[in-house]
Amino acid sequence: MFVSVGVFAQDEEKAPEKKQGHTNNNKFKQLYDEFSTPNMFRSASGAPGPAYYQQQADYKMDVELDDDNAKLSGNETITYTNNSPDALKYLWVQLDQNMRAKDSKTPLIEGGGIAPAQQASTFANDYMTEPFDGGFNIESVKDDSGKALPHMINRTMMRVELPKALESGDKFSFSIKWWYNINDHVNGRGRSGYEYFPEDGNRAYVIAQFYPRMAVYSDIEGWQNSQFWGRDEFALPFGNFEVNITVPADHILDGTGKLTNRKDVFSKEMMKRFEQAQKSYDKPVVIVTQAEAEAAEKSKSTSKKTWKLYAENVRDFGFATSRKFIWDMMAVKIGGKNIMAVSLYPKEGNPLWEEWSTKAVASTLKSYSRMTFDYPYHKAISVHAKNQGMEYPMICWNYGRPDKEGNYSDRTKFGMMSVIIHEVGHNFFPMIVNSDERQWTWMDEGLNTFVQYVAEQDFGKWYPNALSEGQTSYPSRRGPAEKIVNYMGGDQDYIAPIMTKGLNTYQFGNNAYGKPGTALNILRETVMGEELFDYAFREYAHRWMFKHPTPEDFFRTMEDASAFDLDWFWRGWFYTTDYVDIGVKEVKKFYVSKEPTAEVKKMAEARGMKLSDLPPLVFMVEEGSEDYKEEMKNGTLLDNSPSLKEYVMDNFTPEERAAMKEPKYFYNVTFEKPGGLVMPIIVEYTYSDGTSKTETYPAQIWRLNDKEVSKSVASDKEIVGITVDPKLETADVDTSNNSWPKEVKQSDFDKFKNEVKN
Amino acid sequence: MYKIKSLLILLILPLFAFIAVHKYYVSVTQIDYIKEKKSVQITSRIFIDDFEKLLRERYDQSITLAKDQDEKQIDLYIEKYLKSKLKININNKPVNLVFIGKEYEDDIMNCYLEIENISEITSFEVVNEVLFDMFKEQKNIVRTFINSKHKSFVLIPEKDKGMLNF
What we know:
The structure holds 2 protein chains of 2 kinds.
Chain A: H1 2-13, E1 56-66, E2 71-81, E3 88-94, H2 120-127, E4 137-143, E5 151-154, E6 157-166, E7 171-181, E8 193-197, E9 202-207, E10 213-214, E11 217-218, E12 222-223, E13 239-248, E14 252-255, E15 258-259, H3 262-265, H4 268-277, E16 285-288, H5 290-297, E17 304-314, E18 319-322, E19 326-334, E20 337-345, H6 352-371, E21 379-384, E22 390-392, E23 395-398, H7 410-425, H8 427-432, H9 441-462, H10 485-488, H11 508-528, H12 530-544, H13 551-560, H14 567-575, E24 583-593, H15 598-606, E25 619-622, H16 637-640, H17 642-651, H18 654-658, E26 665-672, E27 681-687, E28 692-697, E29 708-715, E30 719-724, E31 739-740, H19 748-757
Parallel strand pairs in A: 1-13, 20-21, 21-23
Antiparallel strand pairs in A: 1-2, 2-7, 3-6, 3-10, 4-7, 5-6, 8-9, 9-18, 11-12, 13-17, 14-18, 15-17, 16-19, 19-20, 22-23, 24-25, 24-26, 26-29, 27-28, 27-30, 30-31
Chain B: H1 8-12, E1 26-34, E2 39-47, H2 48-58, H3 71-85, E3 86-90, E4 93-94, E5 98-105, E6 108-115, E7 123-128, E8 139-146, E9 149-155, E10 161-165
Parallel strand pairs in B: 1-8
Antiparallel strand pairs in B: 1-2, 2-6, 3-4, 3-7, 5-6, 7-10, 8-9
């Protein structure tokens, strides 16, 4: 009782509430709070600092494939160079295969509950069978004198204890002996493994994450030993790889690095064809034909062959091997150097693969080299895998398979071309511009999706016969602004900011690929312009080529090289889930008048002034207001405002007056912004004579009012229509408020229904 | 890594195996009541490859969802399936959905359905079980705009019904 009386009394006495103060929440506030302070390792410009360092890991490996048992074993020697200023007591080595171990915790973090009905096979596999016996079997970890090194395995990470701390500048060599059962990557899904072909009993292997790999030690993370759960990819140091791979003698193999014993593994015929391929710039030359591959499928060699590969300055190593492989190559000139574009595919990929894979590789290298730097490796390989796309240095696997009769839909064809462009493009991000994928999926996927869009459009131009009937350009799935509208305008409960660790995002594809890719495309085409953007983007690629950049290094470089303050753009697009929605709220039309309006009279009165005290003024009257008279529409500007006429006569010569503009129509246009993102306002004004003009007001127009802004527009022609974002280039999620007069647009539903009726 | 949707896996494999390319299984259905037209307009956006997988599994292995295919037969299957999985009660009575058609947009299929002759809505109940028989992680987002009110539901196998009273 008392309480309620008390509350009541308090409410009665309460004065009108005065707003509390606040911190700077302006959308143009610089990102000082989000960014770390620049230091000697990383400069404020976004470039590597004077004390920037990175570790090096060199590998020597002997690997052997047991095709009968689908088992891979190896012995590797890692030489680790500590370029950091710190002394290291232990080293962390990544054991990614352990994600597939029986005791893997990966399944344990998946929610979902019980489904009301399940396929019998799913049910059996979920609840009734033993899981696949995957994961590394580490046989030994030894120093270079053969002495065992103490080590501890925490799931996908292994800590190797050093006999004594590794001082700055010192090297340490140690070896690991391992083996594991290779998984079926088609039925088990995986980025590495084999596909089994029951018709001929052979396997095609695409092998990666197959060896214990050094973790990254850096100025930002220390050891990047965040566990591999299966989705977020990798962080790896650069190094040189000397790898000898022993496989059945009838296998065809290619992988990261230069083949150093070509004469041992190539037939004379293959050698001859290889010579031809190096001079073929317009179409691929077949090194192993389909007939030869089909012949090889029919038997299994019991002897072995060793393929020797050597790669310098790569962050990883992958290879593909099978007796089923058809092999073709062509040359492409990049910066005066000959690069080989290569494809490996079983006959199941044809006729699609022989026609397009190698050409797509060559085209991608050209486009990406233009957007970043000249491709520095000597080859790029596209391997056909049934249903996955995955990238490694110089080699990647890609999906896109015709049906058994060799037919394929447009979806399969463009899916295949796009995934090849995407995965070959990954050579640039993150294989060379080596960002941390474990932490920031978007840094490689987003940047790569952006350049992929540019490369796809190039491909459509360079190979018009790759397009289907009726198409005038390559049908890119991601890149154009309107393609991200459904995601950004969607349910906020299922959207995470781009600046989120990859593992923890909803809608992975839209979050880490689609949105950042589109954001950069919008930044290039609509906000900065191609010239400014491309210079800065290339600068970023050059600065961080063969190094480890962070998001800030990218954000800072883009501004440093362009004099374009983009903090508002990064903040909105990358740090929030806000969306774009800008519209025209209201348009008022004004005419000039010699008579002061009621409003002006009131203002004068309030200040105790007589009308005769006012200086010479040009009065503006809104059409339809009480001061408005029809005749204001007639006569020229100067006729209607004697004070303006006198001023002009007094201050300008007749020649100057003759050159003066004389606008007749004046508008007060109010734009509203229901969306949280600030963006430039792109406005198309349409005039009564049918012409139109597009005006772009920079994003900073929103700096003092985040909700709405008004612009005065003077025109000598009457404006009959105003459209915001007429070409749909800002990803505006609601275009129903984009035009004046308000256009009643037919809904997509009604449009479709009418089409069907007709 | 390029994101593709892993369907097969769900059917054949133990859980741990397919996590590597775990996909987001989701459809979005927009339901608008246009009073002047006495019409409830329904647009369902469903991933083509998910739906193709379903049609193959359920009706015919040779089905390919792409332009220039046997549209009539495929439309019949789509209609039959959607009508059995998307169930709507208006004013506490089950209503008939008219399948108008479908169109492809990149990797998504837009399906259009309509409920005719609805002069008033006092209550609206929607059950959306589309693809629940294929993917146990499937989520169907249903957004409604009825009587000037926006509402959104996330329907999952354990809770497949959304209710609105006006």
